[in-house]
UniProtKB/TrEMBL annotation:
GO terms for molecular function: protein serine/threonine phosphatase activity. This is PP2C family protein-serine/threonine phosphatase. Pfam families: SpoIIE. The keyword Hydrolase applies. Residues 16-26 have a biased composition (Polar residues). The keyword Phosphoprotein applies. It comes from Streptomyces pratens.
Length: 515
């Protein structure tokens, strides 16, 4: 079940991320920095130095994070960020933006200024390929929001425009504020950059150029620090300068967006490692002769773990308790609930509970902690006697373990007394089945992701019978321990023709007599 998402206000298509494929001429990239992210304005850009440069605060597109180690959990980071090497930022210049632009789509500029009937402030513009840059003009922010469609690439904002709710100076239309060096065209004491902040909030995924008076470089630099990609002087505009500045701003925004996605990918990786420690813990088997191996693979290369979990502990009397479970659904809420159930199982087991009493208590935990009454969890528990020759099995809507021993074909343990999944029925019981193991054996616990994959073009599921036959063959080939689990998961994935739709967790316990 997917995690709940906070309700958001309705936005134009361009702001909601419905944009074309990423290219310099294809519109804003998804995942752009939020309003307020600082983009530096430096003198290193030729087009910028001719209009008065200012140094702004550098935005750290990504925080230094831990290096992601190789595990079975695949972290999917947008391919647009593959070229990043972990540096704080990537420098993009107008020339490099021109060199990397190959898309045939024309650029579109949205001009927001309050005197469109006067002398045009935007000259005729051409992109790198000689095609005209389309210009749309909005007289106010309300009209700008209507014109802000998904084919707009850059916004040119006149900082003299009155802020929302403000009263223009001298009772005019606000354009006279362009001649005020301090930019105080609104009410006294008002935020000089309120209109820019409003536009950044309205269009967080678009490149923004701030337009100010010639003698107001300080205000332009402050606009860059607030979040604009660059600032330009109103009376120094020409076609070549503005065209290059637009292309630079669009590419700068794409670079910031890519670095933000990289930072988010690193954050996901750290979150995954924390969840992994909760879902897939280190077993407590000190003093036990049993050998332990486990493997986990998320379905469809999801960035977050699903709800599969397992644990193994040895209690002071020498009994080894093993458990594997699966919370229905996928996402952080299900993963967190899986962590809670695993920790509760370990605590209750170490406290001496087992079988029906333990499962009943776990059901109470699930009912109190789940976000929805329809969420349930399947569980399989096994308690192995201190001498390792017999075990007790409890199933709560979960597939039965696979059991193998020398001289006998691998088979499923009895599942006739399989009880309901946790969270489905109240006042229920989970029978405990006694199983004879012998002196040398292997016991494999797994989640349903291992048996629900498809087989070839037929579309049929592998099922438990198919899984048993596969493991029998692999055991005959001499595979044991981690090699057996690796081969089983890989073959199931290959039979499916790619990544499995569901997560897969597999746990293996082996008992080999000491010489």
């Amino acid at each position: 079940m997917p995690a709940s998402v906070p309700r958001q206000r309705t936005l134009p298509a361009a702001e909601s991320g419905q944009t074309h494929a990423a290219s310099m001429n294809s519109g804003p990239a998804e995942g752009a920095p939020e309003a307020g992210t600082t983009a530096p304005h430096t003198a290193e850009h030729p087009a910028i130095s001719t209009i008065g440069s200012a140094t702004g605060s550098t935005a750290n597109g990504s925080a230094e994070g831990d290096t992601c180690t190789e595990t079975d959990i695949d972290i999917d980071i947008d391919t647009d960020t593959a070229h990043h090497t972990g540096k704080a930022r990537t420098r993009i210049t107008p020339d490099s933006a021109e060199a990397t632009s190959t898309a045939p789509t024309n650029l579109t500029l949205l001009l927001i200024e309050d005197d469109p009937a006067g002398s045009p402030i935007v000259p005729e513009l051409l992109d790198r390929g000689g095609r005209p840059i389309r210009v749309r003009t909005a007289r106010n922010l309300t009209e700008a929001e209507r014109l802000l469609t998904d084919d707009v690439h850059c916004i040119l904002l006149d900082l003299a425009l009155p802020a929302p709710g403000s009263r223009p100076a001298n009772g005019g239309n606000g354009s006279s504020g362009a001649n005020n060096s301090g930019g105080s065209g609104g009410d006294e004491g008002a935020d000089e950059l309120a209109v820019l902040k409003h536009v950044l909030e309205l269009a967080p995924r678009h490149a923004v150029l701030a337009l100010t008076a010639s003698g107001d470089a300080e205000r332009g630099a402050e606009a860059v620090r607030v979040g604009a990609q660059d600032y330009l002087f109103r009376d120094e505009l020409d076609s070549r300068l503005l065209s290059r500045a637009i292309r630079y701003a669009v590419e700068r925004k794409r670079s910031d967006s890519a670095e933000r996605r990289l930072a988010e990918g690193r954050l996901h990786a750290r979150e995954n490692r924390r969840l992994e420690r909760g879902l897939l813990p280190t077993p407590l088997l000190d003093g036990s002769p049993l050998h332990f191996a486990a493997r986990y693979r998320p379905g469809r290369s999801r960035a977050l773990l699903g709800g599969d979990f397992y644990d193994v502990v040895r209690t002071p009397d020498g009994t080894v308790h093993a458990m594997i479970g699966d919370v229905c659904g996928h996402g952080p809420d299900e993963a967190a609930l899986g962590v809670e159930l695993r920790i509760a199982w370990r605590a209750l087991t170490l406290a001496g509970l087992s079988g029906d009493e333990l499962l009943g208590t776990l059901q109470q935990v699930l009912e109190h902690e789940r976000a929805d009454d329809e969420i349930f969890a399947t569980l399989c528990t096994v308690d192995i006697s201190p001498d390792g020759r017999e075990a007790g099995l409890c199933l709560a809507g979960h597939p039965s373990p696979l059991f193998a021993r020398p001289g006998h074909p691998a088979r499923l343990l009895p599942y006739d007394d399989n009880g309901p999944a946790l969270g489905l029925l109240s006042d229920t019981r989970w029978p405990r089945t006694q199983v004879e193991l012998g002196t040398e054996w292997s016991l494999m616990l797994y989640t349903d992701g291992l048996i629900e994959g498809r087989v070839g073009d037929s579309g049929e599921r592998l099922g438990q019978d198919g899984m048993v036959g596969m493991v029998r063959r692999q055991l005959t080939d001499g595979l044991r321990g981690e090699e057996l689990l690796r081969a089983a998961v890989n073959e199931v994935r290959d039979l499916n023709g790619g990544e499995l739709a569901d997560d897969v967790a597999v746990l293996l316990l082996d008992r080999v007599p000491q010489p």
